[in-house]
């Protein structure tokens, strides 16, 4: 990070999963409930982050994830915010996602 910022981190309740749908799939209704959910479409796939219990049988998914909230807002010019939080957690035995979803004001 280039500026000093106080970082606040909290853990969301529940077991989360990352699911993969076929390219061009519409956003699934089963994913859009709970404190955090994200649907991302990209060439070759549609990815879903949601509570593990929402993922239907037969959908390719990996569960067992905790969801962390890094409270914002953060100025867009700042860099290294996620690294400043995730690197120390990794050193304490926590694994971190390769692709955390973010909103305009919060990193999840």
Report on this model:
- The chain has 108 residues and is mainly beta.
- The chain has one domain (9-90): VC0802-like (2-Layer Sandwich), CATH 3.30.2130.
- Helix content is 9%, strand content 28%.
- The protein is built from 1 helix and 6 strands; from the N terminus they run ββββββα.
- The chain has one helix at residues 81-90; strands at residues 9-11, 16-21, 38-42, 45-51, 60-65, 68-70.
- Strand 3 and strand 4 (45-51) form a beta hairpin.
- The longest helix is centred in the C-terminal third of the chain and has 10 residues, at 81-90.
- The two termini are 18 Å apart.
- The model has no long low-confidence stretch (mean pLDDT 80).
Layout of secondary structure:
Elements: E1 9-11, E2 16-21, E3 38-42, E4 45-51, E5 60-65, E6 68-70, H1 81-90
Protein name: A9CJY8-like N-terminal domain-containing protein
Domain A9CJY8-like N-terminal: 14-57
InterPro entries: A9CJY8-like_N, ACT-like_dom_sf
Q: Which descriptors would you attach to this protein?
A:
mainly beta; 9% helix; VC0802-like; single chain; 6 strands
For the record, give the distance between the C-alpha atoms at the N and C termini, rounded to a whole number. Answer: 18 Å
CATH top-level class: Alpha Beta
List how many beta strands DSSP finds.
Answer: 6
Specify the biggest β-sheet. 4 strands, antiparallel
- Ranges where pLDDT stays below 50 over 5 or more residues in a row are none
Shape: globular
Order of helices and strands: EEEEEEH
CATH architecture descriptor name: 2-Layer Sandwich
Percent range of helical residues: under 10%
- How many domains, as an integer? 1
Estimate the mean pLDDT confidence.
Answer: 80
Q: Over all CA atoms, what is the radius of gyration?
A: 15 Å
What order do the strands of the largest sheet run in, or round the barrel if closed? 3-4-2-5
What's the helix count?
Answer: 1
Supply the helix-strand structural class. mainly beta
The CATH topology is given as: VC0802-like
Annotated CATH homologous superfamily: VC0802-like
β content, as a range?
A: 25-35%
């Amino acid at each position: 990070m280039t500026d000093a910022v106080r970082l606040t981190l909290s853990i969301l309740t529940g077991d989360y999963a990352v699911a993969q749908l076929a390219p061009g799939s519409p956003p699934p209704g089963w994913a859009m409930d709970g404190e955090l959910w994200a649907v991302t479409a990209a060439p070759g796939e549609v990815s879903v982050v949601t509570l593990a219990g929402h993922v239907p049988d037969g959908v390719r998914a990996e569960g067992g994830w905790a969801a962390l909230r890094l409270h914002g807002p953060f100025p867009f010019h700042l860099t290294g915010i996620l690294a400043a939080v995730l690197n120390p957690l990794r050193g304490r035995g926590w694994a971190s996602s390769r692709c955390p979803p973010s909103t305009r004001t919060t990193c999840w």
